[in-house]
Specification:
The structure holds 2 protein chains of 2 kinds.
Chain A lengths: L3 E9 L5 E10 L4 E5 L6 H9 L6 E6 L2 E2 L10 E4 L11 H11 L4 H15 L14 H14 L4 E5 L7 H18 L2 E5 L3 H7 L2 E6 L2 E6 L1 H6 L4 H6 L6 E11 L2 E4 L8 E3 L10 E6 L4 E4 L5 E10 L3 E7 L7 E6 L10 E6 L5 E3 L10
Chain B lengths: L1 H18 L8 H27 L2 E2 L10 E2 L3 H8 L1 H35 L4 H13 L2 H11 L6 H10 L23 H28 L4 H9 L4 H29 L3 H6 L20 H10 L4 H29 L1
Antiparallel strand pairs in B: 1-2
Helix pairs in contact in B: 3-13, 4-8, 4-10, 4-12, 5-8, 8-10, 10-13, 12-13
The chains are: A alpha+beta, B mainly alpha.
The complex binds adenosine-5'-triphosphate and magnesium ion.
The site of magnesium ion has 3 residues of chain A, from helix 1.
Amino acid sequence: MASLQLLGVEKSYKGGASIIKKLDLFVEDGEFVVLVGPSGCGKSTLLRMIAGLEEVTAGHILIGDKRTEGLPPSERGVAMVFQSYALYPHMTVAENMGFSLKMAGLPKPQVAQAVERAAEVLQITHLLQRKPKALSGGQRQRVAIGRAIVRQPSIFLFDEPLSNLDAALRAQMRLELAKLHKQLGTTMVYVTHDQTEAMTLGDRIVVLNGGHIEQTGRPMELYERPGNQFVAGFIGSPKMNFLPCRVQASSERGATVQIGSSPRPLQIPAPSGRVAGEPVCLGVRPEHVRLTTPDQGIPARVDIIEEMGDVAVAYLHVAGLERHLVVKTPSSAMGFYEGGQVGVAAELECCHLFNQQGVNLSLG
Amino acid sequence: MSAVMERRETPAAAPVKSRRRWLTRKTAPYVFISPFFILFAVFGLFPLLFTIYLSFHYWDPSTGLGGMKWVGFENFTFVLTDDWFHKSLYNTFWIALVSGVPQHLAAIPLAFFLHTRLSRWRNAVVGLYFLPFITSTVAISLVFTSLFSRDYGLINVLLTQMGQWEVAGLRPLGWVFPTENIDWNDPGYTKWVISFVVWWRYVGWNTVLYLSALQTIPKDLYEAASIDGASRRQQFWHITVPLLRPMMFLAITLSIIGNLQLFEEPFILTGGLGPGGTSIGGPDQAGKTAAMHMYATAYIESDFGTASAVAWLLFLIIAMMTWANNKAFKEKS
Ligand SMILES: Nc1ncnc2c1ncn2[C@@H]1O[C@H](COP(=O)(O)OP(=O)(O)OP(=O)(O)O)[C@@H](O)[C@H]1O
Ligand SMILES: [Mg+2]
């Protein structure tokens, strides 16, 4: 087990733009860190640099307190689980899992023992003699993880390991990964697109965008106190509503803003010192918007309702707003229908104000 | 789908139908596919069946179709006990092995090298290796005939220069390299020269086959292997070679079929056919392959019946070898 340190890490391809820009990150020993970010932001590249599959253009990567420059992948003490699983198709499951130990020159009985132990942890003992093509997606995923476990690495690297699985299997594997982390206590760096994986698995989430870190923090911290508009929009599903508006007045109690052409201004808690007329963006999550009767709150029209069973997501048209306002409410609270008029009220303490640069003003 | 289309097209198709009734919806596909079957029947199937028929007859074509004489299995028993056939078969297998085995032993590492180390120049280099494969055999054989010529050939010049290299009155390389010009026409060399030319000609072809197979191996397998601690050499043995097996099977099958039917290269390199019908296969017939034997039997001895029997026996041998190869590759996987 080991900590992981990235110091001013940069990556650029020959003749291309830089993919990773001066990135610093410290992952504690035993921590489960989730990397999220839009497609193409450099998550895989970062992971591959840690694994030693990709050269570092500038900066240092330290595993434990060992510098990794020039260290081949096998000597870094990392194991990587690929999105494609990358199982060796001509080897049995047991051979796949034991390959690294065999390469290290361990005697056969020892390899078999280590494979046996890892297979028990993942409950794939009955599959050991099969070839990968005779396995289901979930089983392959387990084998890929098993291959990583057998090496007893000090850091696990996962690159979207569950993205090829169906929803039910993904939920199950997510649980097992969490269990595995508890059991092994090994440092894990996990790349994903999936909101739920990020929120539930990570001790800490790192939000990447365009090769730099937007924010890092515990999942709930990012959800409740996003540092900027990008993070606010990226964490949470459905996405946070962003409503462009202007500050009408500012006081100790917050800033008063007008939503669309609504006659009822809202007072958002924010440090004083905002200038009247300043263009800002109000951010409010769909789950923090309540629907009331048209005579209360901001008047709106229901355009579309998506019924999920437990919750319903409604897309509202508010006069003066270009985009729909998205609302998530428990299905039981549904007293409205498509085309109907409703009133909208927001939980003001959960709203955020972002300035033109996207900085969250509400954090103070 | 088709029902809908038919209904929609009926009014438009009706007048056409009345003009050429033979080209209906049902017959059209067969009419369009027929050229292949007609050509195949005339130039493929008929000769095939005719040689079976011929192999049970004695026939000199100059006597016309009426000159055929039923001889039963006599052609086959004759060929099977014929020393010339045995010798040509021996030559064929000798050349097939000596040129074929190194072809694959060279092509696989070469393809691996091209695949892993070259990127920008890969296609150009592959093209160079492939060039002999598409060059006319006659041109190749002419070039090699002059390279291997006894008195002025470049190969002899190079070899003897090495052998005659003197340091302080001694010839240190004299015991490895010849000091006198070698007569490559000597029967002892014939098969070596032919094998070398065949090897040289088809190594590029095999390289291309293996290269295409290498390109289908996912890159992340190598990445996983390098994380698992496999060196480049170990990656080659544990990842590349096993995943090349299907292509090895195909390439070796093609080599077996091609090498056992070898004709052009040895025929031209050994000077083809002398005016008196003498040199098929060079001095001592050291370069006479089974296919050349078949050719000589038919066109020089005008014995088409025996030649057909040779052809069918050769076919059986090739089929058996291919089957054995298939067996060898299936069992392990
Ligand atoms: N060999 C390469 N040469 C040039 N650019 C590359 C190369 N490999 C990747 N890139 C670029 O680097 C950027 C980051 O790629 P990367 O695979 O790390 O993205 P990612 O965050 O993992 O995306 P995704 O979520 O879609 O997997 C992309 O814009 C990609 O186009
Ligand atoms: Mg990626």
